């Protein structure tokens, strides 16, 4: 009789599905509402986000061409009071957590 040794490899869930932190989902549905001398922004919260960064530019374009005007906001809303009436502002939002920052949301225009 021959002795046969069988090896069974069991892949752990960590190896198959990944484990640990990952960047959050991107914020979605960014919208702007105009108020008296301000622009109110709101968006759909991103799964896994611990905070949000808000970016503003004077021209449409990628988030890298905009200036960060708010960091690590805990809620999915922001009121920009540093605006000039009659000027178009272009906004985008990113989500953050301990792992990093997401790609930007959709771009919206606010013109107080």
Q: Using only CA atoms, what is the Rg? A: 22 Å
Q: How many separate structural domains?
A: 1
Shape descriptor = elongated
Structure classification: mainly beta
CATH architecture tag: Sandwich
The secondary-structure element order is HEEEEEEEE
Number of strands: 8
**Largest beta sheet, briefly?**
5 strands, antiparallel
DSSP strand content: 35-45%
Termini separation? 88 Å
Mean pLDDT, nearest integer?
A: 86
CATH topology: Immunoglobulin-like
Helicity range: under 10%
CATH superfamily: Immunoglobulins
CATH class label: Mainly Beta
Name the poorly predicted regions.
6-19
Count of DSSP-assigned helices: 1
Characterize the structure shown.
By secondary structure, the protein is mainly beta. The protein contains 1 helix and 8 strands, in the order αββββββββ. The strands form 2 sheets. Strands 3, 4, 6, 7 and 8 form a 5-stranded antiparallel β-sheet that branches. A 3-stranded antiparallel β-sheet has the order 1-2-5, with no helix packed on it. A hairpin with a 2-residue loop joins strand 1 and strand 2.
Task: Give the topology.
Layout: H1 13-17, E1 28-35, E2 38-44, E3 51-57, E4 67-73, E5 77-80, E6 89-97, E7 100-101, E8 108-110
In short:
With 112 residues, the protein is mainly beta. The chain has one domain (24-110): Immunoglobulin-like. It has one helix at 13-17; strands spanning 28-35, 38-44, 51-57, 67-73, 77-80, 89-97, 100-101, 108-110.
């Amino acid at each position: 009789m021959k002795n046969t040794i069988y090896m069974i490899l069991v892949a752990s869930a960590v190896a198959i599905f990944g484990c640990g932190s990952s960047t959050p989902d991107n914020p979605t549905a960014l919208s702007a509402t105009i108020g008296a001398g301000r622009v109110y922004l709101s968006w759909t919260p991103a799964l896994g986000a611990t905070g949000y960064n808000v970016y503003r530019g004077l021209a449409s374009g990628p988030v890298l061409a905009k200036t960060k005007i708010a960091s690590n906001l805990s809620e999915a809303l922001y009121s920009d009071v540093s605006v000039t009436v009659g000027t178009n502002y272009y906004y985008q939002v990113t989500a953050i957590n301990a792992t990093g920052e997401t790609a930007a949301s959709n771009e919206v225009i606010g013109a107080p």
